[in-house]
Specification:
mainly alpha, Arc Repressor Mutant, subunit A, 8 helices
Length: 156
């Protein structure tokens, strides 16, 4: 839930608040859980919906990270590869560029990328969480990946 919330909101403190609120809602609504879609999908859908509510309320206008900012550190995440120093530095530069490219995606595409490639959700789980047809999920993901490939072209 934290990964999803931090990726959607781009603010670790606010993401922690969403996770806390989601856990309270999950606890309160636990008796109504029917188990039709799976616990993971249900829990992540609650967190995603809370994130969307916050984004709507604050009319999301956060600037994209600058090149010298470390988006992982800003999100409260760490990136600590155990390879040689040059590879570690290259990896951090690559991951920071990828994070900036993901942050620049439209919200629906960014959400699809995070759900599929960070959280490892299936298309079925994604359609359940987002409430849209599978074709819509696939097209959002395809558009996002095309945009990301173009943005990351310099690293090939």
């Amino acid at each position: 839930m934290t990964t999803l919330a931090a990726s959607m909101l781009r603010d670790r403190t606010e993401a922690d608040d969403v996770v806390e609120e989601a856990l309270l809602r999950i606890h309160a609504a636990g008796a109504q859980f029917r188990g039709e879609r799976g616990l993971r999908t249900w829990v992540l859908r609650i967190a995603a919906n809370l994130c969307r509510d916050r984004l709507r309320r604050r009319k999301f206008t956060a600037p994209l990270p600058e090149h010298d900012e470390d988006p992982f550190a800003a999100a409260g995440l760490t990136f600590d590869p155990t390879v040689a120093m040059d590879e570690a530095l290259d990896g951090q530069v690559l991951m920071a560029a990828l994070e900036r490219a993901i942050a620049a995606l439209p919200e629906d595409q960014r959400e699809a990328v995070v759900m599929r490639h960070r959280l490892g959700l299936s298309y079925t789980e994604m359609t359940d969480m987002l409430g849209v047809p599978e074709g819509t999920v696939k097209s959002r993901l395809a558009r996002a990946l095309t945009t990301l490939r173009t943005a990351m072209e310099e690293f090939r």
